[in-house]
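TA notes, week 10

Several of you asked for a full example with nothing omitted. So below is the full record: structure tokens for the whole chain, then the designed sequence directly under it. When grading your own attempts, check the secondary structure regions first.
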């Protein structure tokens, strides 16, 4: 069977068959006829002129002069109305120009003249598909294949159309056939990769790409291969591909943005930020560059910078669903829960079936204590994507897990084994650690928490013990007894602010929940204000220092007024404010502090198991944890010595759970409010809780966390030694 007219000519000329031996065969057939009559001569002359216009049209088409080609083909069909090839090629060019209806009409005229004209059937199918008639296109491609089973292009087109209809398995069969017929068929290889990925079998496409790249290392093929590797979680391989691409096209913003994404997934956040910023320099309106930049900033706990990056991307593309989801994550981290939910719902309106966004909505429901709603949303997300890391991680914190949760365990371990972004891997290890702790498999629990911490330690900025010690020493000097004995700034002796401080996991969330159950107290959660205020105070000149401190106090009180105008007291429970008690007292001498202290081994083990963000760089190593704990105790000993007695109340977590009413009364007396029995029903209080304790604080008081370290005693020798316990 001769090749199709648009296939390469088998003579090896490099031209299409219709422009080479195909034309010669047609001319030879005409030459074999008897000498023409006069009428026939006139017809042959018209046919010859039509052939000239037809050949001119082909030449113009090949040069990209499509409008001129249309004119030549139309002249050919006017001179020779039965010229099927001209009608077909006219239809093909009209389709390239986007004139779908006219293209369909031309192809139909060609088929009316030659019903088994495979090329015209193929072009008609392409035009039907372009017009949205997928079913007609698929039927057309199948007719072409029935006529010419060896036509690779027809198998590829059929596979591509089947992929659009969701018939993934049938698409894979057609695309494999196209590649068997033409192994170097790059378009079929890339579409097979997409089909296999859609079927969860993307790894099967790798050998096809490798063979193709060995023969033809074109940029577009390498680009598709890089995207495939990234989609499979093979981020090292993807980064290698993008490095090769950037060597060849260093000024391509999209490639820098993609490189930033895979470096983020590898945990190389600073390098990712550099590539994303370069992408934005090269192409400021590229929304993905802003998205990937924000993701790495968020991973480094640079919350405001991440928020700004996402908003910059949304200014460019207000309907970019992934940017709305990412912005919601930043808003949640900043404690802006209402804004986070609004952003999440905007994203879902754009992508109703986005599993990651549904999972985020589930996490927001957890923050509000709506655990049944959260589980429903997370399971809907997993129905869309059974191995979604965000949903698997969030499900683990909803409740105590048991033997019935083995399918969850298997899915989490399967995700870890196939490769996943570093941030997700860290969270999944800690989620699995919690699962195994819940089912009393202590060895597996500790192993997963250790693996999560080792991964975090490899990919984040390391804890600097020297810098921490020096900072504490500077704080002690800056806020010594003399400094704090200076006259307080007039007008700032408000008793509204209450600060709950201590190490993370020491009972600060429980304490805030108890206090916030009082009708005159508002629980504000973990406000980041004094972290940035401390930087501003240190940067102030000696002449401006007092005025700066006073201004910081005024601004903070204004924020409390805006957040809770009717509350007599507002609780700020950011634990790390223990570093800034001197500054806070200097700015707000009427403020009251409640310091929670818990058994150091329980505290440090709970931190180690939690999987905190990059802001807690000390949390991934027992030695770093012990050092940080010692510096915390050094600071607290100083505050006990220099702060006025009435400002600081110290509460041991173990005493609080043993005598909740007695210590709740003491705390209320300390902040100047009367007793209210609702404080004992704290677990019924309906308010958002953003900390890792959001499930625990909604349970009745119990001692289950007291002495928990003893379950893991055999793993804790180095921590006990470093703590001196």
């Amino acid at each position: 069977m001769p090749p199709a007219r648009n296939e390469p000519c088998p003579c090896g000329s490099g031209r299409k068959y219709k422009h080479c031996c195909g034309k010669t065969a047609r001319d030879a057939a005409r030459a074999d006829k008897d000498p023409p009559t006069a009428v026939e001569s006139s017809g042959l002359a018209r046919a010859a002129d039509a052939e000239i216009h037809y050949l001119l049209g082909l030449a113009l088409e090949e040069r990209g002069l499509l409008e001129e080609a249309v004119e030549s083909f139309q002249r050919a069909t006017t001179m020779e109305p039965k010229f099927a090839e001209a009608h077909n090629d006219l239809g093909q060019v009209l389709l390239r120009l986007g004139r779908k209806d006219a293209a369909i009409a031309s192809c139909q005229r060609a088929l009316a003249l030659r019903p088994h004209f495979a090329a015209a059937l193929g072009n008609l199918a392409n035009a039907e598909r372009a017009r949205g008639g997928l079913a007609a296109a698929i039927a057309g491609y199948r007719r072409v294949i029935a006529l010419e089973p060896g036509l690779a292009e027809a198998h590829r087109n059929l596979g591509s159309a089947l992929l659009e209809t969701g018939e993934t398995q049938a698409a894979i069969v057609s695309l494999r056939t196209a590649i068997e017929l033409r192994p170097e068929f790059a378009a079929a290889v890339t579409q097979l990769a997409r089909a296999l990925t859609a079927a969860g079998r993307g790894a099967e496409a790798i050998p096809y790409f490798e063979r193709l790249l060995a023969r033809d290392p074109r940029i577009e093929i390498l680009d598709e291969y890089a995207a495939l590797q990234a989609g499979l979680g093979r981020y090292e391989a993807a980064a290698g591909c993008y490095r090769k691409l950037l060597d060849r096209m260093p000024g391509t913003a999209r490639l820098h943005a993609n490189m930033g994404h895979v470096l983020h997934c590898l945990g190389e956040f600073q390098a990712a930020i550099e590539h994303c910023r370069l992408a934005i320099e090269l192409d400021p309106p590229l929304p993905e560059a802003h998205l990937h930049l924000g993701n790495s900033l968020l991973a480094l706990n640079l919350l405001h910078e991440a928020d700004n990056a996402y908003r910059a991307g949304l200014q460019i593309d207000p309907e970019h669903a992934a940017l709305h989801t990412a912005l919601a994550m930043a808003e949640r981290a900043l404690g802006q829960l209402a804004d986070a939910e609004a952003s999440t719902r905007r994203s879902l309106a754009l992508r109703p079936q986005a599993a990651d966004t549904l999972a985020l909505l589930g996490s927001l429901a957890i923050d509000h204590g709506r655990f049944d709603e959260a589980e429903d949303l997370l399971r809907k997300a997993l129905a869309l994507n059974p191995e979604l890391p965000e949903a698997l991680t969030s499900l683990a914190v909803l409740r105590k897990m048991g033997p019935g949760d083995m399918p969850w365990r298997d899915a989490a371990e399967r995700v870890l084994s196939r490769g996943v972004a570093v941030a997700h891997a860290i969270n999944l290890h800690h989620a699995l650690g919690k699962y195994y702790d819940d089912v009393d498999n202590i060895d597996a629990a500790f192993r997963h928490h250790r693996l999560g911490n080792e991964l975090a330690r490899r990919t984040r900025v390391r804890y600097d013990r020297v810098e921490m010690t020096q900072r504490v020493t500077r704080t002690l000097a800056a806020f010594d007894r003399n400094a704090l004995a200076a006259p307080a700034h007039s007008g700032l002796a408000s008793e509204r602010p209450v600060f709950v401080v201590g190490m993370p996991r020491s009972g600060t969330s429980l304490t805030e929940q108890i206090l916030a159950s009082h009708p005159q107290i508002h629980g504000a959660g973990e406000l980041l204000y004094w972290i940035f205020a401390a930087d501003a105070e240190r940067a102030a000149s000696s002449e401006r220092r007092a005025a700066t401190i006073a201004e910081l106090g005024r601004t903070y009180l204004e924020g409390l007024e805006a957040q809770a105008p009717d509350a007599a007291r507002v609780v700020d429970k950011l634990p790390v404010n223990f570093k800034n008690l001197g500054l806070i007292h200097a700015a707000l001498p009427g403020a009251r502090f409640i310091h929670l202290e818990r058994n150091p081994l329980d505290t440090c083990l709970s931190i180690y198991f939690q999987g905190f963000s990059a802001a807690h760089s000390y949390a991934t190593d027992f030695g770093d944890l012990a050092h940080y704990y010692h510096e915390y105790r050094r600071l607290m000993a100083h505050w006990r010595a220099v702060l006025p007695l009435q400002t600081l109340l110290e509460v041991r977590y173990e005493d609080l759970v043993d005598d909740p009413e007695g210590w709740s009364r003491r705390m209320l007396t300390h902040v100047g409010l009367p007793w209210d029995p609702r404080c004992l029903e704290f677990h019924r209080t309906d308010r958002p809780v953003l900390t890792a304790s959001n499930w625990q604080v909604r349970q009745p008081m119990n001692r289950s966390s007291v002495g928990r370290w003893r379950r893991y005693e055999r793993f804790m020798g180095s921590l006990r030694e470093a703590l001196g316990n």
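The chain has 36 helices and five strands. Use that as a sanity check on your answer.
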